Every structure is written in C-alpha cells, then in structure tokens.
TrEMBL record:
Alphabetical UniProt keywords: DNA-binding
Xref: NCBIfam families: antidote_HigA
Name this polypeptide is given: Addiction module HigA family antidote
Secretion signal, residue range per the UniProt entry: none
Domain HTH cro/C1-type: 19-65
Lineage: Bacteria, Pseudomonadati, Pseudomonadota, Gammaproteobacteria, Enterobacterales
Species this chain originates from: Sodalis ligni
Length: 95
C-alpha cells in the first residue's frame, strides 16, 4: 500500500541530524555543504551512494533511505498527468 504524500527523505534526514550543523554533517559524509543542503531542502534525491553513506553515518539501513526516495518519487510521478497506457495483450499460444 503506497503512502499518501510521503515526505522527501531529506525532511526525515533533518530529524536524524538535529543538533548537528550542516557543515559538520557534510564533512562527515565527505560531501559539500551545498550537496547536503540540496538533499535537506528536497532539491536533490538520495542516491544509492548517499544511502550507503547515511547508513554508515547514522547506523540505519541503506535500504531505508532508498525505499523512502522511491516512495517519494513514485507518489510525485503519480500526481502528474500521464498518457493512458493500455495493457499489453499477448496472443495465447497453445502447447
């Protein structure tokens, strides 16, 4: 069951980093402050590489971050108009 309007994982990450400066967290992740700020402000996605970094830094699973990103992107995509796609009908083959 898909979550209704899931948060961007950057919003969740803000909670994990509460009390830690963006500069310090970025240094620990070996990325620029700008890169981390873009994630925290929902302007950049959590990549597989970033999920692994966050896993190491925070003791979470990388899958948690990737799953959050996927849920967010799927919900966002579902909100945009898309063409109607008809199911593929394959001819029935008799054995």
């Amino acid at each position: 069951m898909r979550m209704f309007n899931p948060p961007h994982p950057g919003e969740v990450l803000r909670d994990y980093l509460e009390g830690v400066s963006v500069t310090d967290a970025a240094a620990s992740l070996k990325i620029t402050r700008t890169q981390l700020s873009r994630i925290l402000n929902a302007h950049a996605a959590i990549t597989a590489d970033m999920a692994l970094r966050l896993s190491s830094l925070l003791g979470t699973s990388a899958e948690m971050w990737v799953d959050m990103q996927s849920e967010y992107e799927l919900w966002q995509a579902a909100q945009r108009p898309r063409p109607v796609i008809e199911p593929l009908h394959r001819p029935h083959v008799h054995a």
